[in-house]
Amino acid sequence: MASPFTLRIYEVVKEIPKGRVASYGQVAMLAGNPRGARGVGFALHRNPEPGGIPCHRVVFKDGSLCPGFVFGGPEVQRQLLEEEGVPFLPDGRVDMARARWL
Prior knowledge:
Elements: H1 4-15, E1 22-23, H2 24-30, H3 37-45, E2 58-59, H4 74-83, H5 96-99
Parallel strand pairs: 1-2
Helix pairs in contact: 2-3
């Protein structure tokens, strides 16, 4: 059984629109625990709805992709984001100035 915080994380992540990303810290804040960024990572690692909870839209605050992206690695995460139109910088990070949600 997921904790109330974990359930809120899933609801927040479901709200991130295609073509946008949020940082782990941003999701934690919106889910009610500003210091819970690590908990966001744990919750997304256990994503119970891989097609319904778009965890690929959550990145590090500097736009870096998660090296341990559970659904296929950072290459898969980048491909999913590119397919949605998320812009990337030349160094491989998401362009947070253009793609950050909210």
